[in-house]
Amino acid sequence: MRFTLFTFFLLTSIIAFSQAPEGTGSIDGKVLDSISKTPLEYTMVRIFSVKDSLVVTGIYTDENGYFVLEEIKYGKYYIVISNPDYRNKTIPNISLSADKNLRKLGSIALVNSSRELDEVVIQREKTPLQLGLDKKVYNVGDDIATSGGNVTDVLNNVPSVEVDQDGSISLRGDGNVTILIDGKPSNMSGGNGKSVLDGIPASSIERIEVVTNPSAKYDPDGTSGIINIVLKKNAKKGINGNVSLTAGTGNLYTGSLGLNLRNTRFNLYGNYAFSYRDGYRNNFSDLNQYSGDTTVTLNQVRYGADLNITHTAKVGMDVYLKDRNTLSWSIAGNAGDRTRLGNQVNTRYTNFGDTSDVWTRNSSDPSTSQNIDFSLGYKWDFKDDKGSLDANAYQSLSKGTDEGFYQQSYALPDSLPSTDQHLFSREANDFTTLSLDFIRLLKNKLRIESGLKMIQRNMTLRSSSEAKDASGVYIPDTLSNYNYKYLESIYSAYGIIGGQLKKFSYQAGLRAEYSIQNPNLISTNQSFKNEYFNLFPSATVRYEAKKGLEFSLGYSRRINRPSSWNLNPFTSYADPYNLRSGNPALRPEYIHSVDLGLDFNSRKFTLAFALYQRYTSSVIQRVKVFYENGTSNGTFANIDNSVSSGGEIVIQLRPFPIWKNMLSFNGNYITYTDDNPSANWNREGFVFGMKVSSTVELMKKTLTLQVNGRYNAPSITAQGKMNPRGSVDFSADKSLWNGKWGIGLRVTDIFNTQDFSFEVDQPTVSQTSRFKWETRRIIVSIRYKFGKTDFKEDKRSNENNGGGGFDF
Question: What is the pTM of this model?
Answer without folding.
Answer: 0.74
